[in-house]
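Researcher: I'm preparing a figure for a lab meeting and need a structural model of a single chain. I don't have an experimental structure, so a prediction will have to do for now. The sequence is pasted below. Please return the structure as C-alpha cells so I can convert it later.
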Amino acid sequence: FETLNGRHDRAVKHCIIAAKLGHDDALESLKLSYAYGKGLISKEDFAAALRGHQAAVNATKSPAREAAEAFYQRQEKRQS
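Model: Understood. Here is the structure written out cell by cell.
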C-alpha cells in the first residue's frame, strides 16, 4: 500500500524486511525494483536481502520436514 501512496522508499524497506524473513514475493519485488527501479534499492541492500532470504529458507530445512515433503509427494502420485 505504500507504493500506492507514492512512498516507494518505504515500500522497498518493507520488502527488504519480508525478504529477510523468507518471503518469496517480497524478494521478487526487490529483484524488479533493483532491475528497473532506477535507484530504489542499492546493490548492497539487494545483496543483503538476498543473503537474508537464503538464510531464512535454509533455517526452515530439516530432515523431518524433508521426509514429510517426500511422503506427501508420494501420496499425491498415488492419488493421481
